[in-house]
Amino acid sequence: MAVVRSEEDLLEALGPLVQGLGYSIVEIHSTRIRGTTHVNMAIHRPDGVTVDGCAEVSRTILPRMEILYDTQDIYLEVASPGIDRKLKHPREYVIFKGKGVQIHLKDGKTVLRGLIGESHADAVTLIEESGQVDVLYEQIQKARLDDTQEVK
Question: Would residue 40 count as lying in a domain?
Answer without folding.
Answer: yes
